[in-house]
């Protein structure tokens, strides 16, 4: 049940998160061009809703950086973390596929390759390897450190999910403008792979040269968060 919960939860996360991106950037939607604040609000609410639903049957990590951080902390085995990560990637692909199916008429109208890719995966506003990598490290460090703190305070599950959702909004508004803040390898890699596979008109390149940053940046950030948490505790 844990594995199914991680799969469904990550699918819901990406369905709602990439759904708001698609609504904002694709042409002729009702919420077209409504802006970055709408995207960050949508992603924060997506995290809260996905964690609330998947939390019924799973730890609700929804993120390989979180699963690997809990493995380093000793709460789960490394094998379990790797299984969760694979399932999260598959769930992210399903969520992104559902976004594509719903918005397909709008994809057919789109001709901006960066916008099309942006509805699947993240990308830098200004390409700079150090800055982009640091953005993903810092955003995920704050995310995981706060999740660990929530566990320490033993917050009620419903309140905890709201808190994490608000945290994602805060990270997006404060730190997300440089890269689109993946802060989750599954959220970026799974949909990016789907973008490469789907027959989307004028989709362009999947930007695999950048793809390692939203994979390894969040993992480094999550592991650093555990090290800082252990020092504080």
In short:
This is Aquaporin. This protein has 233 residues and is an all-alpha fold. Helices cover 72% and strands 0% of the residues.
Descriptive keywords:
mainly alpha, 233 residues, globular, MIP_CS, 9 helices, Glycerol uptake facilitator protein
Oligomer: single chain
What is the top-level CATH class?
A: Mainly Alpha
Q: Determine Rg (CA atoms, Å).
A: 17 Å
CATH topology: Glycerol uptake facilitator protein
Beta-strand percentage range: under 5%
Describe what this molecule looks like in 3D.
The chain is mainly α. It has a single domain (1-232), classed as Glycerol uptake facilitator protein (Up-down Bundle). Helices cover 72% and strands 0% of the residues. It has nine helices and no strands. It has helices at residues 2-25, 36-54, 64-73, 78-109, 113-118, 129-153, 157-175, 185-197, 213-232. The chain is globular and about 50 Å long. The two termini are 32 Å apart.
């Amino acid at each position: 049940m844990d594995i199914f919960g991680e799969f469904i939860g990550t699918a819901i996360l990406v369905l709602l998160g990439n759904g708001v991106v698609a609504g904002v950037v694709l042409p002729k939607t009702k919420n077209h061009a409504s802006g970055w604040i709408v995207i960050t609000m949508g992603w924060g609410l997506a995290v809260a809703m996905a964690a609330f639903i998947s939390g019924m049957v799973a730890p609700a990590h929804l993120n390989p950086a979180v699963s690997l951080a809990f493995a380093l902390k000793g709460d789960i085995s490394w094998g379990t973390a790797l299984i969760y990560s694979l399932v999260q990637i598959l769930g992210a692909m399903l969520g992104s596929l559902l976004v594509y199916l719903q918005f397909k008429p709008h994809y057919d109208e789109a001709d901006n390759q960066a916008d099309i890719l942006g509805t699947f995966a993240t990308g830098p506003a200004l390409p700079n390897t150090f800055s982009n990598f640091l953005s993903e490290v810092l955003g995920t460090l704050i995310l995981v450190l706060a999740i660990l703190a929530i566990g320490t305070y033993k917050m009620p599950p419903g309140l905890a999910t709201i808190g994490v959702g608000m945290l994602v909004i805060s990270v997006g508004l404060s730190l997300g403008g440089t890269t689109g803040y993946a802060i989750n390898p599954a959220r970026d890699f799974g949909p990016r792979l789907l973008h490469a596979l789907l027959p989307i008109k004028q989709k362009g390149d999947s930007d695999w040269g950048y793809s390692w940053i939203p994979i390894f940046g969040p993992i480094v950030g999550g592991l650093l968060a555990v090290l800082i948490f252990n020092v504080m505790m």
